[in-house]
Amino acid sequence: MKRVLLSLLLLSLAGCKSLSGLTLEDDYKGPDAGYAVIGFGASAGTQYGSVSLYYGRSMFNGGNLEEYSRFSYPPLLQPFAKPDYQSEKDEGMVLVAKLAPGEYEFVNFSAIISRGSILPPLIYSASSPFSIPFTVRPGVTTYLGNYQTVASEGQGPTGGMREGPPIFLLQDQAERDLALARKREPNLFKSVDNATPKAAWINREFFVEEIPPEVLSKQRGRMSLQEILWGG
To answer: Greater confidence, 191 or 18?
Structure first.
């Protein structure tokens, strides 16, 4: 039953793509295309239904601010997809987009928590946009870094604890992630730009390079949704 509810939730959100401004082409067919690759997943114990990072053309490059796309884990149209990598500490998938050349930036996120069939889902996002810039060049694969979602804790409506806003652990896992990406996309360009950001550059509380100890201690012993589905 939990699988059915989660599937319906994620598929309904995926179906809203055109209504929410997610019209940026992420399978560009032009001869000047470049690839963007990201490792995206969850640390052990994180139980969001799905987490998305939204990106678009940079406002400093004449970007249309109404056009965005997203990377999501688990993928919204594949809510029960098996992770590409999995360990005691984390799990995730390597996602690939084929983009027109230019300047782009991550601007926001969403983290969805299902609350059953009666209550609407709880969705976290940043209260104001941020900017994590990256460049896509013709004939080049841009590695965007590895983002592992970690849940903080928040106060539930009845006084109990629930998943709070996400924290993103930033890592450079280029060697592993690009090898996995080439299995999915054999034509991935060999020339690589590593655009893994530093948390200090972003300067927002959602992005860290080490999980705060108080958050880590609350994750121990909990299983993620994908771990429940696929095992350790």
So the answer is: 191
